[in-house]
Amino acid sequence: MNHYQSIQSSRSQGVIRTSLALGVLLCMGALVHGLASPALPGGFQGQRAAAPDDGRGTPYKVEKSDNLCGLSEPRQLSKPAKVDYDALLQVTDEYREMRDKKIDPKSARGVELHNKAHNRIVAACERARVNAGYCSVWKTIARRDGKAINDLTKAVKRDLAVGA
């Protein structure tokens, strides 16, 4: 090996060592950040909160994303109602078309049909909510004291059947 080759070889080894050392430092930094950062719950341990509860400090256990119509702020709720969203989805014409024609729910047509079904359900829930005097309708809601929440599923199903 001549002088030039030995210089190139030692440079290559130096670059590899530096790259490895930098990689190790970055991994260690990510690990420390992940374990200490409140922005990353549970770090790399894969822990999740038991159940999201956006209604802390109120009589209701809710997740805001479950709101279909009416008031969506848990602290404003006075007379909420709930529905069985999956049961309502299954009685829509759009869902039946997806099922009968075996349309993939993730395809463009499947997403379009699901959105139409969702919009019909929300409109029917809004009509039932107003007619019955409720402040909001939710997919999932519970009272902290265990009292029952009124269910509007039957009324909404009737409305969907009439609107079909």
Please characterize this protein's 3D structure.
- This protein is an alpha/beta fold.
- It starts with a helix and ends with a helix.
- It has two domains: 3-45, no CATH class; 60-163, Skp domain (Protein Binding, DinI Protein, Chain A).
- The protein has a four-stranded mixed sheet, covered by helices on one side.
- It has five helices and six strands; from the N terminus they run αβββαααβββα.
- Helix content is 51%, strand content 11%.
- It is flat and about 90 Å long.
Summary tags:
11% strand; 164 residues; alpha/beta; Protein Binding, DinI Protein, Chain A; 51% helix
- What is the CATH first-level class name of the largest domain? Alpha Beta
Radius of gyration: 28 Å
| Number of spatially distinct domains | 2
C-alpha termini separation? 85 Å
Write down the overall geometry: flat
What is the CATH architecture descriptor of the largest domain? 2-Layer Sandwich
Order of helices and strands: HEEEHHHEEEH
Q: Number of DSSP strands?
A: 6
